[in-house]
Amino acid sequence: MSLVKYNNNSISAVTSTGLATGSLVPIKTLTASSSATLSFVDGSDGVVLDSTYPIYKFSFINMHPASNDIPFQFQVNASGQTGFNETITSTAFDAYHAENGSAAALRYLTGSDQAQGTGYQNLSTGTNGNDESQSGELWLYGISSTTFVKHFMSRFQDTHSSYTTDQYVAGYINTTSAIDEVSFKYSTGNIDSGKIKLYGIKDS
């Protein structure tokens, strides 16, 4: 019987996120308080959204809407553009399970995808109740490229009417222009509370 040995130096250089130590760089935290939108703009108030990092990660902590059953969304502006209306093609699915075990399913979310749409992209279907919120992550890739379209992926965990909902969204922003602004909001009403943290991920 052979004994498998691991290189301890390699293991110790990996964090719990699977990234090498120092690869994940905090950039900016925005905190909602009855906010219509939370936006990250390159070069504004310490925000970096340029070629400094090949990947940008947004973390969402206990996002809570002012209204019930309202999708949480994002959109972007290409460099020099306004209006947060870039063209997006996306796909979305989720898995849910009731607290009492009465229902569970895996489903495609036809109401959350876009086919060359210019609206805000749904990241989650919303929460319902004062004690409910949603948390998750959004990853943007190669946003400074002027050759390729821009890919994104997200995953959200919602507490919704005594259900747990695990939601996945992915797609591309169909522009070869650099992206330098990202906006978040609920489809209706304000962001009652929650934090959004922006990180840059260094090249290896």
Can you tell me about this structure?
By secondary structure, the chain is an all-beta fold. The protein has one domain (29-201): Jelly Rolls (Sandwich), CATH 2.60.120. The chain has one helix at 8-12, and strands spanning 24-35, 38-41, 55-65, 72-78, 88-98, 104-108, 121-124, 134-141, 150-160, 163-173, 179-186, 191-201. A hairpin with a 2-residue loop joins strand 9 (150-160) and strand 10. The two termini are 36 Å apart.
Structural class, from secondary structure content?
A: mainly beta
Number of strands: 12
> What is the CA-CA span between the terminal residues?
36 Å
Query: What fold name goes in the CATH topology slot?
Result: Jelly Rolls
Order of H and E elements = HEEEEEEEEEEEE
Quaternary structure of the protein: single chain
CATH classification, class level: Mainly Beta
- Which residues form runs of ≥5 with pLDDT under 50? 8-14
- The geometry reads as globular
**CA gyration radius, whole angstroms:** 18 Å
Strand content: over 45%
Count helical runs. Answer: 1
| Helix content range | under 10%
Count of separate structural domains: 1
Mean pLDDT: 91
The CATH architecture term is Sandwich
Note the main sheet: 8 strands, antiparallel
